[in-house]
Amino acid sequence: MNFPNNLSLKLQTRKQENAFRKLSLPNALIDFSSNDYLGFAKSESIFNETHQFLLDKNIKTNGATGSRLLSGNHILYQETENFIANFHLAETAIIFNSGYDANVGFFGSIPQRNDIILYDELCHASIRDGIIMSNAKSYKFNHNDFEDLEQKIKNLELKIKNIEIYIVTESIFSMDGDTPNFEELIQVSGKYNCLLVVDEAHALGVFGEKGEGLIQSLGLQNKIFARIMTFGKGLGCHGAAILGSQDLKDYLINFARSFIYTTGLSPHSVATILMAYHQLQSEKETIEKLRHNIIHFNQEKNILGLKPLFVRSKSAIQSAIIPGNEKVKNIAKQLQEKGFDAKAILSPTVPEGQERLRICLHSYNSEKEISDVLGLLSNFVF
Q: Which of 63, 169, 269, 351 could form a Cys-Cys staple with 265, CB 3.0–4.6 A?
C-alpha cells in the first residue's frame, strides 16, 4: 500500500530542514541528556522495594484490567494518592497515566465555554494540546512577562458574568530551565480573581528540602488552584498527579476524558510511584548533591565565559542557545564523540533561531564531568 503523497512531502521537508527525528537506543555515554535528575530511574533500591512491597501485600497482578471507573481502581491507587496529597500539603491528588494525559485531561475539561485561558507562550505542548480541546477562549502572554499578562487581562473587557480566568505557567520551563517570579504572578492573579495552574514536571525532586517542588518550597501551595506533578523526571518512573481540592478531583473523575477512557496503571507502576516518593523523603543527600552540581555548573560556565550563551537557570536544565539546526547538531555530535551525551533541541520543537544545546544535570554527575563537558563546549563554540 502506497504511503500518502502529502505525508511523504512533509517528511521530505523535515529532512531538508535538517530537523528529521529518529529514535536512538541507550548508550554508554556520560548522561547530560536525561530527565532522571536524581538517578531514581536506575535505582536498585526502588526496584527491590517495589517488588517486596507488592509481595508483602500479596499483589501479583500484571495489569489494572480496565479503566479506573470500571475494574482498574486497585487499592494501591488510594494509598498512593493519599500519600502524595499529604506529601505536597494538598487536599487531594488524582493520578493520571502520564503528564501528557494529566494536562490534556485538565485543560480539556476544566475551563468552560466563555472562560478565558491565559498561558505562557513557552508552555509545554501537552498544555497547548489540552487548551485546543477546551471550549474556552485562550490567549498566550509573553514569556514570564506579567506586565503583558496584566495588560491582556485588562484588554478582555469582560461583559459576561460567572466566567473564570485561568492563568497557566510552569515552575521550571522544560526547554529553558528558567522560573517565573511567582510572588509577582500571584499578585496579578489575586488582583483579578484568576485561577492559577502550575505544571511542576521539572521541579519535583529538584526544589524543596524533600524535593517537593518549587511552589511548595516557596510556601505558595494554597495560592494555586491546581498543581500538575509529573513522575517521569525527578521520580524516575511514570505517571502524573493533579493536586487540588476535593471538588477538583471529583470533577476530573467525572469529566476528564484522558482519565475516564483509558486503562489504569498497573499495580507495579503505582507501587513504583509510592516507593519513589518514600525514597524522596529519605534521599536528602542526593537532592543536595544535585543542587551542588547546579551551582558548580553555573560557576564553571561563568569562568569559561559561556554565560552569555546560556538561558539564566538555577534548575537542572541548562540551555545554550546556538542558532541553526545544523550548527547545534554538529556541536552535540562533537560532544557525543568525546563521550558526553548532550542533546541538540531543534526547530520546530523550539522557535527558529532559538535552537539550543540542552544539558541536563544529575546528582550522579561528578564535578569533573561537568567541568569537562563545559570545557569542550567552550572549545567548540569559540
A: 269
Q: Identify the residue whose cell numbers are 538517578.
A: 39
Question: Closest Cα to residue 222, out of 180, 186, 250?
Answer: 186
Residue 86's CB is within 10 A of a number of other CB atoms, namely: 11
Q: How many CB atoms lie within 10 A of CB 117?
A: 23
Element (H, E) at 119: strand 116-120
CA nearest neighbour of 201 among 174, 163, 168, 237:
174
Q: Coil, strand, or helix at residue 110? A: coil
The answer for 135, left when phi > 0, alpha when psi is -120 to 50, beta otherwise, is alpha
**If you ran DSSP here, which 8-state letter would residue 202 be given?**
T
Q: Using one digit for the tens of pLDDT, what is the confidence trace for 102-157?
A: 999 999 999 999 999 999 999 999 999 999 999 999 999 999 999 999 999 999 87
Q: How far is it, in rounded angstroms, from Cα 301 to Cα 293?
A: 12
Q: C-alpha dihedral over 182, 187, 192, 195, to 10 degrees?
A: 30
- The H-or-E segment that residue 94 falls in is strand 92-96
- Count other Cβ atoms within 10 Å, centred on residue 324: 14
Q: Which of 183, 202, 219 minimizes the C-alpha distance to 89?
A: 219
Closest CA to 208 of 249, 172, 238: 172
